[in-house]
Amino acid sequence: MKISVNTYSLGGIANDAGKQLNMIEMADFAKSRGFDAIEFVGLEVPDNTDLDVIGFAKYMKKYCEKIGLEISGYTVGADFLAPGNVERLKKEVDVAAALGAPVMRHDIVSYLPEGKTYFDLIPEFAKDINVIADYAASLGVKTCTENHGYVSQGSERVIALYKAVNNKNFGLLADFGNFLCVDEEPVKAVAAVAPFAFHVHAKDFKYVSKEESKDPPPGYFNTAGGNHIKGCVLGEGIVNVRKCIEIMKTNNYDSYITVEYEEPFVDKAAGIEKCIAYIKSCL
Predict the structure, then answer these.
(1) What pTM was estimated for this model as a whole?
(2) Considering the domain 2-205+239-282, what is its CATH architecture?
């Protein structure tokens, strides 16, 4: 396995001028901290260039090759209930292909229409996901979705979606920590989704139960069940990240482990360095 970090995790890290790192500087940061690869969450074109997003994607592909940093994936938002979503995602696949990203992760939906369950909507979602997955296959990019948010979440839901899509170019992204957002035990959930995973996010959370505190403490947010979680350095929370990695190995996963770190109110650079050290100890 190789160790990656996503650009979302590098938000809040400043350059020498005190400004937020741009995408080029994020690649430099990842390389300097010993990461094998970087995953782009969206692609923000710097203000000081006249390149469009495809041109910048091609530039970043060459730049990462030059500094010896692989590109592990490309992550974008999506809403399969929104008009024009399929065509918009095809354009994002074009960006992923220009980057040379082997996999593109997209969301599914963040809310449910009144009177509908997630399982009611799966056939409709599956139809559109197949269109995107087939288009991506023609460009050499795999597609996947993760257990993310509160709706397209939980092992039962994402597995049901995966099976309904039934496309060899579409898989799941196993985010170790996100299962806690819907109060699912991470190790059991990862074991369930591991056979279908194309990509992995290693994430950890600190946890406060609703019995301990009715309201979320500072920096925490609520789970679906009313408990409270906060992003933290890998190995410092309640997610058994080491066991989750072992499960992925058992399921013959041999691709990237991407650090996703979102602890608030901290020195993000120092936290990232602790995260990669922990992952190395697990591998």
Answers:
(1) 0.96
(2) Alpha-Beta Barrel (3.20)
